[in-house]
Design goal:
Number of helices: 1
Order of helices and strands: H
Largest sheet: none
Shape: rod-shaped
Number of strands: 0
Radius of gyration: 37 Å
Distance between the termini: 107 Å
Number of domains: 1
Strand content: under 5%
């Protein structure tokens, strides 16, 4: 910055100070942006994990409905055949 023999703040001192402050601000911003990127990545991962969990549960529920629907249809068909045998043609 300023030399011991100088009493006044010069333009060159101002330019040097500006450059130093700019470099310090850049480093701090880069660190903050890096932290923000990490936090956003973790948050995004949590969102995707939650969506995956919900999608898996929906898929399992749909498969269960398909299986039970087919089982109900089969039971109705068997019941209809048994009723025809027991009660005759209705």
């Amino acid at each position: 910055m300023k030399n011991d023999d100088q009493k006044f703040f010069t333009v060159k001192d101002g330019e040097n100070l500006r450059d130093e402050l700019s470099a310090m601000i850049d480093v701090k911003l880069d660190n903050k942006l890096g932290d923000l990127d990490e936090k956003l990545f973790k948050w995004k991962s949590e969102i995707f994990d939650a969506v995956d969990s919900v999608a898996k549960e929906m898929n399992e529920s749909q498969e269960f409905r398909e299986i039970t629907t087919n089982q109900i249809v089969e039971v109705e068909e068997r019941t209809g055949k048994l009723e025809k045998k027991v009660f005759g043609a209705c």
